[in-house]
């Protein structure tokens, strides 16, 4: 199969994977906030969130993660990029992203049983981690060897701090 088709499939599944990661945590937030509703409303909402979470997680997010990883590693193997510094960083970030995905799976399994263990604020912060992975991985791939890792690392932490501040401001605004 032509390399450009593999690359296109990889990108399609990366986009789908991130869409699933962004939306699943939003559903977790809504599911968690439903816990504060009156019993009848809570029961209806949580049943619906369980269905939505299951469909998103099993039909879109997991398959996209698997296919994205498969096509990505296929390209690394085909192009023999194992010794490339930027690729090692990307693979490290992708491995961390898979860890994030697995932690979301643990949260998913708990919420499927209506075991609410995180607050909505904790989940909002957790949701921003996916954005940090996305931005960092894109910069690594696009800039490759021209990326100054000191500035890249500082930028990663600056983005994280900015997102946390924005969440705190949003929380205050929401509470008013």
Provide structural commentary.
- By secondary structure, the protein is mainly alpha-helical.
- The chain has one domain.
- It has 5 helices and no strands.
- Helix 1 packs antiparallel against helix 2, helix 1 runs antiparallel to helix 4 and helix 2 packs antiparallel against helix 3.
- The longest helix is centred in the middle third of the chain and has 41 residues, at 39-79.
- The chain is flat.
- The mean pLDDT is 90.
Keywords for this entry:
flat, mainly alpha, single chain, 176 residues
Helix and strand layout, with pairings?
Elements: H1 3-34, H2 39-79, H3 85-112, H4 120-143, H5 149-175
The residue fraction in helices comes out at over 70%
Termini separation: 56 Å
Label the overall shape: flat
User: Structural class, judged by helices and strands?
Assistant: mainly alpha
What share of residues are in beta strands? under 5%
Low-confidence stretches: none
Question: How does the major sheet shape up?
Answer: none
Radius of gyration: 18 Å
Give a quick rundown of the structure.
The chain has 176 residues and is mainly alpha-helical.
């Amino acid at each position: 199969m032509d390399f450009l088709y593999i690359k296109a499939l990889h990108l399609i599944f990366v986009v789908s994977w991130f869409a699933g990661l962004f939306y699943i945590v939003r559903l977790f937030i809504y599911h968690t906030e439903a816990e504060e509703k009156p019993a009848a409303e809570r029961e209806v909402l949580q049943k619906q969130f369980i269905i939505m979470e299951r469909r998103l997680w099993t039909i879109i997010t997991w398959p996209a993660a698997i296919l994205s990883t498969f096509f990505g590693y296929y390209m690394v193997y085909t192009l023999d990029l194992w010794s490339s510094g930027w690729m090692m960083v990307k693979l490290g970030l992708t491995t961390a992203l898979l860890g994030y995905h697995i932690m979301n799976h643990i949260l998913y399994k708990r919420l499927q049983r209506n075991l609410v263990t995180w607050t909505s604020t904790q989940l909002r912060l957790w949701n921003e981690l996916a954005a940090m992975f996305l931005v960092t991985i894109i910069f690594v791939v696009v800039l490759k060897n021209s990326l100054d890792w000191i500035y890249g690392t500082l930028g990663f932490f600056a983005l994280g701090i900015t997102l946390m501040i924005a969440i705190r401001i949003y929380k205050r605004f929401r509470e008013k």
